[in-house]
Amino acid sequence: MQGKDTKKSTFYQLFKPILNGQFFKQIKDLGVDKYVKKLFTPQFIIFMIYAQLEQLKGLRAISNSLNNQDFSQEINLKSISFSQISRRLNNLPTEVFQTLFKDLTFKVLKEAGDDNRTMKQSTKKY
Fold first, then answer.
1. Which Pfam family, any one, appears in the UniProt record (predicted)?
2. pLDDT, tens digit, for every residue of 34-57?
3. How many domains are contained in the chain?
4. What distance in Å separates the CA atoms of residue 101 and residue 95, rounded to the nearest whole number?
């Protein structure tokens, strides 16, 4: 994946196909990270995916996962309280996740070679 001395995080490299220019444009257009000081949307999404993969139970366990210094360093976040995670989750518009889900669905269908279905899904409103 990467050498130890490179600046780009392994997590960001893994998620590069979904955390792309279109995604960052949407975040900017929605003003999602306008007043955020600590847990930005791309960081938050990677953090939540990690929590799901590790099957962490509850926001306290998610917050405590930053005790793992390697993980903490990878997402560039030293610490965060469970209440800050909760507030961030509550303040993040569902449109961010909806667009992310639609983009991923489109890519999977395209990879599967189902172009007709892909075109119908990409124009369908949820």
1. DUF4372
2. 888 888 888 888 888 888 888 999
3. 2
4. 10
Are 76 and 99 members of one domain? no
Residue where the block lists tokens 């007043």: 35
State both tokens at 118.
Answer: 């892909």
Find the DSSP H helices in 31-114: 41-53, 59-64, 69-74, 82-91, 94-112
pLDDT tens per residue, range 63-99: 998 888 888 888 888 888 889 999 888 888 888 888 8
Q: Is 36 in the same domain as 19? A: yes
Please name the residue that has the structure tokens 């961010």. Answer: 96
d(CA 118, CA 14): 24
Closest CA to 100 of 30, 35, 38: 30
Distance, in Å, from the CA atom of 16 to the CA atom of 9, rounded to the nearest integer, reads 10
